[in-house]
Amino acid sequence: MTFHMSKGFFQHASHPVNNVWPMWKYCYIIAILLLKLVKGFPVEDIAAILKEYFEDKENVFLVFIFGSAVNDRLTKESDVDIAVLFKQTPDFKEIIHFKGDLLSVIKRETDIVILNNSSPVIRM
After folding, report:
1. What angle do CA 118, 120, 123 make, to 5 degrees?
2. How many whole angstroms separate alpha carbon 51 and alpha carbon 65?
3. What share of the chain is helix, strand, coil (3-state, %, to 5)?
4. Where would a tag sit more exposed on the chain, N or C end, judged by fewer CB atoms within 10 A?
5. Is 113 in a helix, a strand, or coil?
């Protein structure tokens, strides 16, 4: 898969806006890339890990990093805040499995918001 960098997020090369591939076929991966080290921990590493992890997840439509990772406050002790929107709302078991996977992949405390189950205010 090829990704292009555009305005702080990754976009699949076959982005549906370009009318190249059907929207259901690809997820969007939004990973904030700060082109510097933030207090000793490279945010680029987190973005690269997330990009690789989500590349083959067909049910994932949108992923983005928020919180201290994008506000220049990320430290080695910080958790990583991630929001995920699934194409099909996952059941409780899938969410627990997904959260466990992310924790083992990122290897740091992770706070995950499932946008499918969140309030309309958060989804905006």
Report:
1. 70
2. 11
3. 35, 25, 40
4. C
5. strand
pLDDT in tens, 63-112: 888 887 777 777 777 888 888 888 999 899 988 888 888 888 877 788 88
- Prediction pTM value: 0.61
Domains, the chain, ordered by start? 3-123 (3.30.460)
Edge to edge, the sheet with strand 110-114 lists 60-66, 80-86, 110-114
Cβ contacts of residue 104 below 8 Å, gap of 6+?
none
DSSP assignment of 32-77 = ---SSEETTEEHHHHHHHHHHHHTT-TTEEEEEEEGGGTTT---TT
User: Do the Cβ atoms of 55 and 31 come closer than 8 Å?
Assistant: no
